Amino acid sequence: MHAPGLQLRATQGAALSQQMQQGLKMLQMSALELEQAITQALSTNPLLESDDALEGADEGEAIDARTSEEEGSDEQIDPERELSWSTTGNNHSGERSADDPVLLAPAPHSLRDHLLGQVNVSALGERDLALARVLVEALDEDGYLRDSLEEIAELVEPGSRTLVRELDVVLSFVQSLDPAGVGARSVSECLLLQLRAKPRGTPGLSLAMRIVESHLDLLAAHDTIRITRTLGCSERDFAQANELIRSLAPRPAATFGSDEPQHVVPDVTVRKVRGRWVAFPNSSASPRLRINRLYADAVRRDRGWSSTPMGSQLTEARWLLRSIEQRAETILKVASAIVATQQGFFEHGDVAIRPLHLRDIAAEVGVHESTVSRVTSGKYMATPRGLIEFKHFFGSRLVSDDGYRISPRAIQTLIRDIVESEDPKQPLSDIRITRQLEQRGASVARRTVTKYRDAIGIPPVEARRMIAMAQQRT
Q1: In Å, what is the CA distance from 416 to each residue of 296, 410, 428, 452, 454?
Q2: CATH for 398-473 (2.60.120.330, 2.60.40.10, 1.10.10.60, 3.40.50.1010)
Q3: Which of 265, 309, 315, 324 allows an S-S link to 31, with CB 3.0 to 4.6 Å?
Q4: Are 37 and 29 a contacting pair, CB within 8 Å?
Q5: 380: part of which helix (H) or strand (E)?
Q6: Which residues pair with 175 in a beta bridge?
Q7: CA distance 471 to 474
Q8: For the whole model, what pTM was predicted?
Q9: What is the crossing angle of helices 369-376 and 18-28, to 10°?
Q10: Cα 207 to the chain's mean position, in Å?
Q11: Distances (CA, A) of 432 to 198, 410, 416
């Protein structure tokens, strides 16, 4: 029997300082979240003040750290040597006050927050918990999982042979969360998940599940006769099942503030300069903040000021300005790399979008993939094609006949163009769509065409034929 004792063990690990954690947190914030954080900092740190309040003041009151260093300061960390204390932009047009009530209004409870709240209190293991969070983050604004598990696995662990099976198991858990229907990959699956959540004995439940699972196209075409004949049910039973189906929500996230106006401030703008598209910082998204000179001078007059409460607030103010500066620089670098890669998109739209992975941009900018992930979360660029989220450009890759990499979004755009140009009386099957894609240089499997067609909301060929017939009768 071993006697109890103490043992010393040396291990290596990386610990993030409070300042580094602050920088990473700010990097992940959207422009509106950053402005709210700045407003909070202004209310708690007397060393900070908004440039808006000092407009027209003497330029000398903006302290430039490179020219205001004091010899003999007993502060060990002096970030002033690396950036100016002022974060004032050069262009003040279109700026918004930090006291704008729209910017300070709390965000509505989102589907993401609702689902993560359930995930975080679940009994999942550490790895399954992480994968569940990944799947929740991958859901679109309607609560659907538009990306395939293969695509998500490639983003999380490139080359993994087992991750798809793990994700499939975890997806079953995500689909069991409230609201029912979340995590579905098609309208049919969404409705089935909601029906399965209904109590047994619900009138019309069994027939409704059969209709949704195999005959949703006929239901969309209002072909009651064919449904009742195929399933061998009476019109009364069908009416009961149809009423149950119509009570379901094809958009599980509809009750989570999707109808609320979302105020988005673009972090960069994209313009064409000398034949090329270029990203520029949006001055309206950069908070105008500086350190109060009078307070700072008063604090530094005391010996040992860095260890005083006011000295700590001065240090925090400096690090805050540094984090804001680095955030703006990193966002612009990432945006510039994306825009440089996506010249074809800005000229021709989604059909010319090039597939990107986080590691592509990380290698281009010289940062870690996790940094690019933080930058692309909740960041937008204002372009002639509308307001576009950075994440819009990232996805898996397909290869065309000539070896050129194409993105799923480009395939979806081609499928939409093909269907829109088809003869409504003779709609194209997925196999014929596949052949037309091959003629355009995009070789994809028929099941891939089916998946992408469902993802962009195009009904199957039979449903399109029935819809066309119904339109002719009317």
Answers
A1: 61, 10, 12, 10, 11
A2: 1.10.10.60
A3: 265
A4: yes
A5: strand 380-383
A6: none
A7: 5
A8: 0.47
A9: 50
A10: 38
A11: 39, 18, 14
Q: How is 252-291 classified by DSSP, letter by letter?
A: GGGGTTTTSPP----SEEEEEETTEEEEEE-GGGS--EEE
Report the relative pairing of strands 268-273 and 380-383 from DSSP bridges. Answer: parallel
Q: How many residues belong to the chain? A: 474
Q: What is the pLDDT of residues 250-263, one digit of tens each?
A: 888 877 754 445 57
The residue extents of the domains of the chain are 28-66+77-96+265-395, 111-174, 188-255, 398-473
Is the pLDDT assigned to residue 402 strictly greater than 60?
A: no
**How many other CB atoms are there within 10 angstroms of residue 58's CB atom?**
8
How far apart are the C-alpha atoms of 254 and 34, rounded to whole Å? 27
Gap between the Cα atoms of 111 and 123, Å rounded = 20
Rounded to an integer, what is the distance from CA 433 to the centroid of its chain?
30
CB 436 within 8 A of CB 462: no
Buried/exposed 294-307: b ≥16 CB within 10 Å, e otherwise: ebbeebbeeeebbe
